[in-house]
Amino acid sequence: MRILAVAHNTFREAVRDKVLYVLVFFALATLLGSKALGWISIGQEIKIVIDFSLAAVSVFGVLIAIFVGTSLVYKEIDKRTIYTIICRPMSRYEFVLGKYVGMAALLGVVTAVMGISGAAYVTMLGGTVDVTYIYAVILTYWELLMVTAFATLFSSLTSPILGAIIVFSIYVVGHATTILIDLPAHFDGTTSKKVLEIIYYIVPNFSNFNIRAEAANNVAVSFDYVIWAMAYGTVYTAMLLVLAAIAFENKDV
Amino acid sequence: MDAIETKNLSKTYRAQYGRRPPPSLVGLDLIVAENEVFGFLGRNGAGKTTTIKLLCGLIRPTRGDARIFGEDSKRKESRRLIGYLPENPYFYEYLTPRETLDFYGKLHGLSAAAREAEWKKLSELLDLKSIADQRVRGFSKGMRQRLGFAVALVGDPKLLVLDEPMSGLDPLGRRAIRELILRMRDEKKTIFFSSHVLGDVEQICDRVGILVKGKLTRHGRIEELLTEKITKVEIIASGLNGAAIGEVKNLGTSMRVSEAGHHFIMPDLPTANLAVRTIHKHDGQLVDFAAVKESLEDYFMRAQEAQS
């Protein structure tokens, strides 16, 4: 009940703070961007529009997740709204989880609206979207949930600017984890290789959630793969939220 | 059972850039009885807000503990009994008072019907109905304070902890808060509040405590703390000639002139009586004679000076 109350409030504040205006930018960017790319890719327009729409869902979603997410808890402390909240008969983890769930709901709406409008635009141009498109949107959302969990953790620990830089770095590295393991032969047996291997296993592998190329090229993706990627994201997110709750438990506000 | 009991409650904030700040609160031992109005006094930075934050579970003590009606203040159960009004309360700017109270009602675990009943009761008590559906964003200081008080009262807490509730309010606003505190006392609530406005504290508190540099230096009932001793006597006289004015002035510590006549300040009662005889001797008229006893402000200043 308390988690939902905090979540509802977080969602409502974000909506009234006009965060959803980003959807208007999305619509315009997708329309203009895919039109422009369509002109230079004769016969490939539908493919380009699908690819571009899915990329836009990811980019706008990540921007919201990082910039709104890293100030989620910090803003409450900075603006002192937290004083009258955590002096209630509630546990601190309920507050952190509530903030996270509210943000997840906001991103859910953003992703759904962007995904549906992308599909509608493709249909309007005479193309069709298959189940892989839906999978691609769902996995993008799961990726956003994970990025938001990172943002929530750093929001409990540090300032929004530093948090945003750290989360953005994790996001970039998380999309290129294979370079940490596919090292040239002369790295064999070195300490560097071992360190990079450890980093490889710690850093989240965001590529697991990227099936946008498959969606654009009508390449089938198995349901099992989608479930596996979601399970990976869920476990990772849960661990991050536990860490965020621990970080916030004894914090002086 | 005591409403508040602290034992050796101490707080030192974490070091910043390698420099550890001085302790904000040192070994606070304090008891506030149920249905008491307790005024917590001290200069800025004396540790008043730190104490309040410790009582409300916002920060963790470095040493010692605090109990609210016997419950450890670190446990969330203790906070069911506390209504907290921070200094300059901040709320979600995009919410309305009705939504704000509903939100806090949910955090308190109240049902929808109970939240509706709370709104009816508190909006009437704090005159929120006319601004029920306006967003907090454009609210004045007084409106925010009223909303803050309503938020503190959600869930009908037995203990109200108010941090500078009169700060920044105009005389009408201060009076409203003062009356509200007295009304809460009549409703058998315990009130613990910090304030700079010593006159207000003197009017409504049963007991006071004075913090100086993180240490509770004095506490007790106001009438026990303030001496009955007359600290000065103010005399106003008219119709005096120059020589008479000089003679009376020499007896006292200061003099000023107003429409009412000459105001003389005498250090004690015997000197004041001598001054009155002098005035009569010179055919002057005694307009006023006022013996001034120690005020809470005088006592507060004395406590500060003794410590420094």
| Main pleated-sheet profile of chain B | 6 strands, mixed
Number of helices of chain A: 12
Whole-number total of structural domains of chain A: 1
Tell me, briefly, the overall form of chain B.
elongated
Number of strands of chain B: 14
Report the span from N to C terminus of chain A. 23 Å
Oligomer: heterodimer
Q: How would you briefly describe this protein structure?
A:
The complex is a heterodimer of chains A (253) and B (308). Chain A is mainly alpha-helical and 253 residues long. In chain A, 76% of the residues lie in helices and 0% in strands.
Question: How would you sum up this structure, described in words?
Answer:
The complex is a heterodimer of chains A (253) and B (308). Chain A has one domain (2-249). Chain A is an all-alpha fold. Chain A has helices at 2-16, 22-39, 45-69, 72-78, 83-86, 92-124, 131-157, 160-174, 178-181, 191-202, 212-216, 223-249. With 308 residues, chain B is α/β, with parallel strands linked by helices. In chain B, 35% of the residues lie in helices and 28% in strands. Chain B has 10 helices and 14 strands. In chain B, the strands form 3 sheets. Chain B has a 6-stranded mixed beta sheet, with helices on both faces. In chain B, strands 2-1-4-5 form a 4-stranded antiparallel beta sheet, covered by helices on one side. In chain B, helix 2 (97-107) packs across helix 3. The model of chain B has no long low-confidence stretch (mean pLDDT 90). At the A-B interface, helix 1 and helix 5 of A face helix 2 and helix 4 of B.
